[in-house]
Design a protein that fits this description.
single chain; mainly alpha; two-stranded antiparallel ribbon; about 75% helix
């Protein structure tokens, strides 16, 4: 399974590099950044399961990258679906998008390290969600669904 996730991370970074080389449009930059963040999150998750690495710190970095990627996908889908620039959006829509994008970061800030627990993460590789973790991943799922609906 580690080989598959490594290949997926590599292909995501390769696609991001292709997008950046091919075009300088805002939506391509947002998509490339989201792909790189997802790839980095996957690599960091793999490192966090390896002995010798600080699991807590790496998981925090991974969760921030996951939240940022979801927000970038929402911005990408909104711009891509309408062929508009972010600067041309009305202030109310821009404020709503920014507020929606801030929700996962607010949950991360409030919950801190209480999103999940694991009796034996390194051996079992299983995380159990606390209620804050449930809401965090529910918000992320909602953001991904919103970005799919926009396109």
């Amino acid at each position: 399974m580690e080989i598959v996730s490594g290949i997926a991370a590599f292909l995501s970074v390769a696609l991001a590099a292709y997008l950046l080389k091919r075009s300088s449009r805002t939506q391509d930059r947002l998509l490339a950044a989201a792909l790189v963040m997802l790839a980095a999150s996957e690599v960091i998750d793999r490192f966090s399961l390896s002995p010798g690495f600080s699991t807590g710190e790496l998981r925090n970095i991974s969760q921030v990258l996951e939240a940022a990627a979801a927000v970038l996908f929402v911005f990408f889908s909104y711009i891509h679906a309408r062929s508009v620039n972010l600067r041309s959006l009305p202030r109310l829509k821009m404020t709503a998008l920014a507020g929606l994008g801030a929700v996962p970061f607010i949950i991360l800030f409030i919950a801190g390290n209480d999103l999940f627990y694991s009796p034996d993460l390194l051996n079992e590789e299983i995380l159990f969600l606390n209620s804050a973790g449930y809401w965090y991943y529910l918000v992320l799922m909602g953001l991904y669904i919103l970005s799919i609906v926009q396109v």
